[in-house]
Amino acid sequence: MDTIQWFPGHMAKAMRKMEEALPMVDGVILILDARCPNACINDKLVKMFSFKPVLYVLNKADLADPVGLKRVTESFVKDKKQVVCIDAKSKKDISGLYGKIFELLKEKVERNKAKGYFKPVRIMVAGIPNTGKSTIINALVGGKKAQVGDKAGVTRSNQWVKLNELELLDTPGTMPPSFEDQVKAKHLAYVGCINDAIMDLSDLCLELIAELTLLYPDRLKERYRLTDLDKTPIEIYEDICQKRGFLIKGGDFDYERCATAVIDDLRSGKLGRVIFE
Ligand SMILES: Nc1nc2c(ncn2[C@@H]2O[C@H](COP(=O)(O)OP(=O)(O)OP(=O)(O)O)[C@@H](O)[C@H]2O)c(=O)[nH]1
Ligand SMILES: [Mg+2]
Predict the structure, then answer these.
(1) Using one digit for the tens of pLDDT, what is the confidence trace for 66-105?
(2) Is the pLDDT of residue 63 over 90?
(3) SS (H, E, C) 61-127
(4) Counting ligands in written order, which one lies closest to the CA of residue 133?
(5) Is any atom of ligand 1 closer than 6 Å to the C-beta of 35?
(6) Which CATH number fits domain 9-170: 3.55.40.20, 3.40.50.300, 3.30.390.50, 3.30.70.260?
């Protein structure tokens, strides 16, 4: 498939605005998609945050393969990164995250206390598009203050959302300026972190089928009632079209409609809990 590259002007601007806001915050939570956490790491942001405490939040854990997620989390711990896995919709996970944020900034909070004054903790919430930054902020504050949507690029500018003791800065999703690793880029595209409009979804679906055949063959078979995966990815793609009735007049395959359906199935968890790393 064509090279995936997505770094529109508004993202460059968003990164500048984040850099400007950085002196105002005590720490950062970096939100990653638990199905491809390493692919979600934007090195440029990590570099920008190198002088701040950072908590890595692997979100959408409800959609991630638990065995793989445990392995990846352990590798973060081994790299001396502060990490937590959450499902933003779970109250228990959100209160755990709340605790982790204060643990991350313990020194700061205690120093303030010792000086005898109360100051709210300020956190920047950052990450690539569609990882759940705004959802997490809403869950932490218990309201609908930040705008949420099921596509990449919903938040367009920095926005403070405040609780008594915690102030959160929502930021727009930002991609790395360039992708050296196209495998990672593909994984981000599967899970919905890249604007669908810039890609050929049939090409993406073909890549996804090839990868699922290796990683989760039984899920693929079960979901689309396939009997034989000992074929080329395009043959499997066409079998899915056939089984699902994605055909156009004259009996040809409707690759596009099938691509939307398969990619949707992956994103919504209908193909089960997956991890690509
Ligand atoms: N299954 C599941 N879905 C989630 C979770 N967190 C967020 N979502 C969904 O993911 C989508 C994106 O959420 P947002 O909060 O808008 O993501 P964002 O990171 O703010 O996105 P941008 O503003 O575009 O960068 C929404 O459809 C959410 O409902 C989660 O833990 N599990
Ligand atoms: Mg947002």
Answers:
(1) 999 999 999 999 999 999 999 999 999 999 999 999 999 9
(2) yes
(3) HHHECHHHHHHHHHHHHHCCCEEEECCCCCHHHHHHHHHHHHHHCHHHHHHHHHHCCCCCEEEEEEC
(4) 1
(5) no
(6) 3.40.50.300
State which of 18, 89, 148 you would mutate to test the pocket of ligand 1, scoring each by most atoms of that ligand within 8 A of its C-beta: 148
pLDDT at 18 over 90: yes
Mutation pick for ligand 1 pocket among 135, 136, 147, 154 (CB with most ligand atoms within 8 Å): 135
Say how many Å lie between the CA of residue 166 and the centre of ligand 1: 21
Please say whether the structural domain 200-268 has been given the CATH code 1.10.1580.10. Answer: yes
pLDDT at 113: 87
Whose C-alpha lies nearest to ligand 1, atom 26? 150
- Per-residue pLDDT at 119 exceeds 90: no
C-alpha to C-alpha distance for 264 and 22, rounded to whole angstroms: 36
- Residue 228 is predicted with a pLDDT of 94
Q: Is 62 in the pocket of ligand 1 (CB under 6 A)?
A: yes
Residue 192 Cβ contacting ligand 1 at under 6 Å = no
Measure the CA angle with vertex 132, ends 126 and 135; round to 5°. Answer: 105
pLDDT at 16: 97
Residue partners of 131: CB distance under 8 A and separation at least 6: 31, 32, 33, 40, 59, 60, 173, 193
In the chain, where are the structural domains located?
9-170, 200-268
Residue bearing the CA closest to ligand 1, atom 3: 60
Give mean pLDDT, residues 186-213: 98
